[in-house]
């Protein structure tokens, strides 16, 4: 699903080409989901090369600490500009010796960012840059320990730590609010990229290797193992990822984009360690590096360190070897068809097809053009007023837009894609015809000014909206442009680009139509039509190709090589099991983290009996509203339909306005009005839970009155009469919920496993987990759209009342009283109904084992059991223990030794303790590792020292102290009733946990097999799933 145009997004979006290539190393941030069209990136070529006429932009503040032309610690400052849109000062510096670019963004923000990136352009699909990215973080000259990156995760309070491989760059970013931490991580990162060990054994572990299934037995079978090898098998088990990857490779085939930088599993075993070392020498040279630094910490300290320790040891080289030429334009459009695996969770076989048309557009460095094309693409595809939506989505012959739809500015050439998922092969032709028709009609008839206005308003609003990860977002949004030597500074002047576009629209009524004619019509011959259909033999073909590759590898081995493999297997195992001395790694101390986050300014008011939380916070002229309606009194059937209700209620119009008009109005005044199901267990005893339906919206202060009027109109006058439209929305909903399962497979596995522990967990899985997909498909098959409509109507009429409501408003101190006036009028207008009951009891279930059969080559495993709720005194201790188990047991065993991409343990506020694995070649072995936690903890008893304990606490603090967006401050109090005092108490309890307390919870919760537990596997068929210690049988769900 496309979301609204936003200038900055905290994480690379998964539905872009970028993401298919960006392979995240740090698994822990993997559940950060961002979607939406990425905004605005890019400068005019001539501007970039000639140097922009930047007179009006120079920071005129004479007091500013740096000046252009001056030299600071070996770096010359080349350009300083103040960017009012984001209240930041940009300083571009260049290292005198190596020519390394250093971009510093000076901004009053505590969440500081540092990153290094290299332009990496592979010419094969062995995953060279990706494996190098893993290996760089496996130990370096100053930090010769195994995997310092993962070790640092627990010695830091980083708000983000990662390494990413893009299609043409490799990026090493981190962020933190603590300056000691910032300096520590800087040391690790710089040493990792400029002086990595790149040890052969690490190559075998992270890249690929041949290994005996039984390490001790030379005669046992040989198989291929490796972290990246499995990671990429997992990445391509998602059909949408296969589609995205193929789209990029086929749209831009002539240079590096013709290959898969992440690595094709069948190509990865062609990579040699020697090639990798050479690749590092060539591409990780400082002259080919770009360093980014953002925030409020002392810049000169950083410059001095970077210069003295690293850059001054290198000579400057010409980095043009890594430059990427523009794609040569085709004279004729091309068609490509690819097969996909049959997705068991997806649509029926005959509908499981995808089609997309991709059109090559501008050069990424032409920023105004890219900006306008991005806006144009938004106007063309998003929402019920766009031409493609009207012509491709509304006829309802598909499951809606596919993941590739939108504008992409991630490569040297930008491109636009529109595509559909879940349609029949017979309808490919229809898609093509409708595409042509849409383009022709748009050229002829143009656009509705009000529609363009609402798109631009939304963009302006997103500039004001503050993300707590602004620095990271700015980095991610600038990296591609910077990598192609575009003007990243001019690209931040979004208001100016909007103004330029408005002026052009004013001067030329046909301005956008001309762009459509140039880029979308048959005038643009660089057009790719990509189609994809399921092949029942897909998985089998892959397995055969893999077996064939293995056979060839083995037949080429002589006895010397065979002996080497055997020895290496033993060596690697010994090295993985050896004790690592991490003393060389820096670590924070208790004094660095003592201070809890500041008390938010929250007050509680009752407005006509509606409990209302008011929060004063610097919001940059935006007011945020959350209304939470209690839905606990709905019937079970109605509750089951609430997720669907949330999805369609804001998309059907109201009694006074049809859906097109309403959408236009909402987007020209607010950021949208969204609904979400809210599920909250009682944090005190976890014996009851509550269900809510939450409406969220925000608007510029000047539009707050409209925001309340529109919310009121929707809540009181929602309209669901149009069953054709409703049916289309339902079908798109079902297609969308089954996309992206494997990229979050661990979350689905944990959700399902928790559903085997309590009835509340079971309901949660039915409302948002894998079971929801099955339920909805069946329900829709068996129920007429008219009946569904009636049930949805009844939900709305029962729920939207002031007696069922609680609300939270976050605004600036100055605006709060005005916001409250508008809000009071809004509450006044809501009807009064009978109050609903508030709590439902939670019951524990008998243990269960569930295997969701999926047609994929990797597994996601989870084991859960019921422990204690959030406010129980053992909860913080268990939370610290979960971190310890993750870092000291599951990562070394399940990841390093057994080859899963990720693994961990956690405890939720609902009291459920969960283990999980991610993209895992094993299942039984992993579940056994989960079961053996107690034995491991006993064996390692002596190693439970103060340092290990402190590192585990830091892991918890990373979560507790992570920065919150202004619109979400106070949300724990609002949703869960966790006040700041409770939070501070919990936090200090985490810091005070002792080794003895850890030992006591280990005995209390892990010694005996828990009474209430669940185990879940998502993965391929497995006939060896027996011998369960508990004697339970696996329930297989296909
Ligand atoms: Zn990776």
Automatic annotation (TrEMBL):
Keywords (A to Z) from UniProt: Hydrolase, Metal-binding, Metalloprotease, Mitochondrion, Protease, Transit peptide, Zinc
Protein name: Presequence protease, mitochondrial
Cofactor: Zn(2+)
Domain Peptidase M16C associated, residue spans: 532-779
First-listed, main subcellular location of the protein, grouped into a coarse class: mitochondrion
Biological processes, Gene Ontology terms: protein processing
Superkingdom assignment: Eukaryota
Family annotation (SUPFAM superfamilies): LuxS/MPP-like metallohydrolase
Gene: LOC117567117
Family according to the record: Belongs to the peptidase M16 family. PreP subfamily.
A GO-annotated cellular component: mitochondrial matrix
Subcellular location: Mitochondrion
KW Zinc (keyword) present: yes
GO molecular function, one term: metal ion binding
Higher taxonomy: Eukaryota, Metazoa, Ecdysozoa, Arthropoda, Hexapoda
